User: Which sequence fits this backbone?
């Protein structure tokens, strides 16, 4: 009987060895990092009324003056002709540019100040030549961080203060708008999320995860908080260095960001304190069921740390 029991014992020991190293909070299975289960709700949608609608072929003349049309939030302008390219900027409705190149249904645009980038043709309309084009607006300069004891400037205290001011506001898929933090934001309507989609939100205020970080970090510039502008996605925070730098996770300090990116989307949050490799206090636009929250959560090993330039 003892000889017969040995193979079963060895099998149990072998199975425990396979499970043991990846059980618990390491978010590892077979040595491959799993996607953050929370990210499936946020999904980092960017602009649901924009690039992710039905794709067909659009024909616009090369050299034509066009404007952004048929969008509710904004139109991504990318480094190349496709959604896999980095978002360089977001063009608000009515923005004018000249088409200089075409690839499929994507158009390379010549914008004010000599900037160029690619946008999807469905959301571009030819400008009536009888109407004079508006003078191009100067590009806003990136603000210089300044001390802000008790205020909302671009230092660590200021960023955390801004996060606190927006706690309780709604999750808005593809949105990013808040009342001015110094003007009693908690007395303003918080908005309401009824589903994790653009059409599932009511009210003027709220944000998704990447829009929230863009607002409290005040990037690309100190634009009005109430302006519904969503310039960067988790793709940018994970891969780019637009207005931030990649840092080691162990060196994360309050007001730095943690970003995750997987095949189904991503998530980004502001780190406040705690274990940067485990349980930490964070500020984040967590999802439709939560809104913007200050919470103690476990940050999985899939996240990477980012620091806003000048902070």
Assistant:
């Amino acid at each position: 009987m003892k000889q017969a029991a040995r193979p079963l014992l060895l099998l149990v020991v072998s199975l425990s060895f396979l499970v043991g190293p990846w059980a618990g909070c390491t978010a590892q299975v077979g040595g491959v990092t799993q996607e953050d289960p929370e990210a499936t709700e946020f999904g980092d949608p960017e602009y649901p009324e924009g690039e992710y609608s039905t794709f067909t072929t659009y024909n616009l003349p090369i050299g034509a003056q066009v404007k952004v049309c048929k969008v509710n939030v904004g139109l991504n302008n990318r480094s190349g002709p496709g959604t896999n390219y980095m978002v360089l900027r977001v063009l608000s409705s009515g923005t004018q540019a000249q088409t200089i190149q075409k690839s499929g249904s994507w158009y390379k645009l010549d914008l004010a100040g000599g900037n160029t980038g690619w946008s999807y043709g469905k959301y571009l309309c030819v400008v009536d030549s009888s109407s004079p084009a508006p003078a191009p607006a100067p590009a806003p300069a990136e603000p210089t961080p300044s001390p802000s004891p008790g205020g909302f400037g671009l230092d660590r205290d200021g960023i955390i203060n801004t996060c606190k001011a927006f706690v309780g506001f709604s999750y808005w898929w593809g949105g990013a708008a808040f009342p001015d933090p110094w003007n009693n934001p908690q007395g303003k309507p918080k908005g309401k999320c009824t589903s994790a989609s653009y059409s599932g939100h009511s009210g003027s205020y709220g944000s998704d995860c990447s829009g929230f970080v863009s607002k409290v970090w005040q990037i690309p510039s100190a634009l009005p908080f109430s302006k519904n502008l969503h310039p960067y996605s988790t793709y940018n925070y994970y891969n780019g260095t637009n207005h931030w730098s990649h840092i080691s996770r162990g060196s994360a300090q309050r007001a730095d960001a943690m970003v995750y990116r997987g095949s189904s989307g991503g998530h980004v949050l502001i780190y406040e304190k705690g274990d940067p490799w485990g349980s930490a206090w964070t500020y984040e636009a967590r999802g439709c069921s939560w809104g913007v929250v200050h919470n103690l959560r476990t940050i999985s090993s899939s996240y990477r740390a980012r620091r806003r330039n000048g902070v």
Summary: Residues 156-308 form a domain with the endopeptidase fold (from Nostoc punctiforme) fold (CATH 3.90.1720.10). The helical segments are 2-19, 39-42, 156-166, 209-216, 234-239. The CA atoms of residues 256 and 307 lie 5 Å apart.
